């Protein structure tokens, strides 16, 4: 199985998606009802918003896997408005109902990954941004969500807790999407976790780094 990014392989993405889900799940399970309702590191979002977003993302990526498996087009979301409404609704759910949705979606997505054949992984699907990609990129999309939002949850995890090989792949992808050169990155003095957090628009420890705005 191949990907379009030399910084990662398909097997890397599968491993990261699994490990990131485990990290996020552990962080969520440490929260009580008041803790999960508290604010996250994302402006205007509680931890319930974050968990609801990741739960909805599992369902949405499951749609893409279904598309690859059956050949029947199935978009991630009915609309951007519906996606946003689902996240806001998630923030109002009782904690146990929200966590059940999150766990069900994560388990179902992993099972869907396991079902696809090598040929099905090569099928083309369309992301929420309207980009055509092979289904083999979906585990990478999930890995980004679970690892980055595990940090966003605000339970004490930081980018330094994420795997270095994942951070390298993530930093390279965001750099390209932001139109930055490798020289631009070399001009920023900081560790790999801090540089990646800066690129992702998250809190970092780099002095005088320009603000890049939100990402993901």
UniProtKB/TrEMBL annotation:
The keyword Manganese does not apply. This is Maleylpyruvate isomerase. Residues 20-153 form the Mycothiol-dependent maleylpyruvate isomerase metal-binding domain. Keywords: Isomerase, Pyruvate. It comes from Nocardioides albertanoniae. One of its GO terms (molecular function) is metal ion binding. SUPFAM superfamilies: DinB/YfiT-like putative metalloenzymes.
């Amino acid at each position: 199985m191949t990907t379009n990014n030399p910084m990662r392989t398909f097997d890397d993405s599968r491993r990261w998606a699994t490990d990131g889900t485990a990290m996020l799940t552990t962080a969520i399970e440490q929260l009580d009802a008041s803790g999960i309702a508290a604010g996250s590191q994302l402006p205007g979002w509680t931890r319930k918003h974050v968990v609801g977003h990741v739960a909805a993302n599992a369902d949405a990526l499951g749609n893409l896997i279904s598309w690859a498996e059956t050949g029947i087009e199935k978009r991630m979301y009915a609309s951007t408005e519906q996606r946003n409404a689902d996240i806001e609704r998630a923030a109002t759910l009782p904690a146990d109902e929200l966590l059940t949705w999150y766990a069900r979606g994560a388990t179902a997505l992993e099972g869907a990954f396991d079902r696809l054949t090598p040929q099905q992984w090569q099928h083309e699907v369309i992301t929420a941004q309207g980009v055509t990609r092979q289904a083999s990129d979906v585990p990478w999309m999930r890995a980004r969500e679970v690892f980055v939002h595990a940090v966003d949850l605000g339970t004490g995890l930081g980018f330094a807790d994420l795997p270095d090989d994942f951070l390298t792949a993530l930093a390279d992808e965001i750099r390209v999407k932001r139109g930055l050169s490798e020289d631009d990155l070399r001009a920023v003095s900081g560790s790999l976790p801090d540089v990646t957090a800066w690129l992702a628009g998250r809190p970092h420890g780099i002095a005088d780094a320009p603000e890049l705005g939100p990402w993901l």
